[in-house]
Structures are given as C-alpha cells and as structure tokens.
Amino acid sequence: MQEDEDNSKDSLLRDYDTVLKESTLLTTFSGVLFGFLLNISITAANRLEYAHKIILVLALFSITIAVSLFVMPVIYHHLQFPYRDLGKFKRRAHRFIMFGLAPTFFTLYLGMVLAFAPLINNFGYVIAMLPFALVYFLYRLRK
User: Fold this and answer.
1) Where are the domains of the chain?
2) What b/e string do you get for 64-91 counting C-beta neighbours within 10 Å, with b at 16 or more?
3) Which of 2, 34, 89, 143 suits 134 as a labelling partner, its CA being 20 to 30 A distant?
4) CB-based burial of residue 62 (10 Å sphere; 0-12 exposed, 13-18 middle, 19+ buried)?
5) What digits encode the pLDDT tens for the residues 127-136?
6) pLDDT score, position 106
7) pLDDT by residue (tens digit) across 50-62?
8) What's the pTM?
C-alpha cells in the first residue's frame, strides 16, 4: 500500500516537472529572442525604414505575448498548488504553451523578414516563409 502511494507521488512529481521544464525552456528561448529584438529597437531603430520599424514593433508585441503565455504554467502552478486534478493542470499548461507557439512563430517570421528585407526588398517576405515551409514539409513526411 505504501509502495503504491510512493510510486504515485513519484509519477505525479515527474509529470509536474516535465510540464514546468517545458515551460521554462520556452520562456528562456522567447526571453532571449525578446532581448535581441529589444536591443535592435534601441540601438538600430533610427536606421530602419518606417515599414521595418512597424515590423519590429509587431515582433516585440508578439514575443511579449508568447513569453507571457509560456510563463503562465509556472504562475498557475504556484497559484493552484496543491492540485486535486493533475490532468486539469496538464491540459491548461498545454493550452498556454500551444497558444504561445503561434506568436513565437510569427515573431520568428518577422525576424526573418527584418533580416532579408533590406537585402532583397519585398521578396524577403516570401523568402522568410521558406524555413517554416520546410519544417512543415518535413513534419508531414514523418507520418
């Protein structure tokens, strides 16, 4: 009886740990990307064209939303601990992370546009889609 209870607690801690580590990794990645974009906006904004300034602002807002969503499982963990329903925690954490991925991908796309647009003008919008198309294509091939 005691052994089953200990195994259940170990499994519960492992599940918490996995969700919180995923959230931490995504928050760290997004935070670094945010810092990079913020640095560009502070140091190089006066050299950017107006359209590129708008893209930079959109990217900053987008990554801010993503960071906020990625940190939510940790906040939720601290607000709701101890849980009566681990499944509910995992579902909510999963939703926060999934909703955070869209603005992260959008920010990555905008970052690619900022990198390519000065070199190849409007064609940069198309070129910036290529890495995402490749990842999608490889994802579809895995099935």
Assistant:
1) 2-141
2) bbbbebbbbbbebbeeeeeeeeeeebbe
3) 34
4) buried
5) 888 888 898 8
6) 92
7) 888 888 889 889 9
8) 0.75
